Amino acid sequence: MRVVSLSSGVLLSIVVLFVLVLGGCADRSTPENATSAGEAPAADVADDHSGWWCSTHGVPEELCAQCNSLLAAEYQQKGDWCEQHNRPESQCFICQPELEGKFAAQYEAKFGKKPPKPTE
Hints:
With about 120 residues, this protein is mainly alpha-helical.
């Protein structure tokens, strides 16, 4: 049986290639299913928080206190909290259904189409 000796450079290249293949090197700031800059993500990424829009709750990710406990604490501290529905009052589509339209308009302005309906 013949033993093949690899130089450290070749071995390092193989390890780096392996890590890139397994871990990926994609830019996570853009949803993987968006095909071009400014295009809206597909509605089937409800639990993906890497994009601009929270499909689960119907607000921009940076404002979604239902997904981000630190944001929730900030909203609560400001007194902007709906105790009944456990979300910011300023995002409670149950108490104030017109708010959904306000956030949907932001999505439409950015992507040129209606947002996916919130799933929660």
